[in-house]
Amino acid sequence: MARLTVKGWADFQHYKDRSPPWIKLHKTLLDNYEYQCLPLASRALAPMIWLLASESSDGSIDADVKKLAFRLRTTEKEIKDGLKPLIENGFFVGASDVLAGCKQDACPETET
């Protein structure tokens, strides 16, 4: 099972050992250039994933797209479209196999 972790989670939260009823959302996010350059769908999805991440002690979530779509009551396509820019821009880490399955078999080169 792939896990997705919020980059810098420990910096955002002061509840370290329990699932808080709320999360901190710093107003500096308004002036975060990288965040504001994200597509609107990604900016809307990020706080929802942060809320899910608050359920774990390390700020990680199960990155299964189908499960995320259910939890956030949206479509798998919307999750994939919103997550991709967030991962590409480093807002979430550890999600190498979240967005797409392997399209071809990798065959290592051999010397002949």
Name a few traits of the molecule.
mainly alpha, globular, three-stranded antiparallel sheet, single chain, 5 helices
The counted number of beta strands is: 3
Continuous helix count: 5
Spatial strand order of the main sheet: 2-1-3
- Biggest beta sheet attributes: 3 strands, antiparallel
Order of helices and strands: EHHHEHHE
Structural class per helix/strand content?
Answer: mainly alpha
The CA-CA distance between the termini, in Å, is 37 Å
Shape: globular
Provide the fold topology:
Layout (H helix, E strand, L loop, with lengths): L2 E4 L2 H4 L20 H4 L3 H14 L6 E3 L2 H7 L4 H13 L3 E2 L19
Antiparallel strand pairs: 1-2, 1-3
Fold and architecture overview:
The protein is mainly alpha-helical. The protein is 38% helix and 8% strand. The protein is built from five helices and three strands, in the order E-H-H-H-E-H-H-E. It has helices at 9-12, 33-36, 40-53, 65-71, 76-88, and strands at residues 3-6, 60-62, 92-93. A three-stranded antiparallel beta sheet has the order 2-1-3. The N and C termini lie far apart (37 Å).
Q: What's this, in brief?
A:
With 112 residues, this protein is mainly alpha-helical.
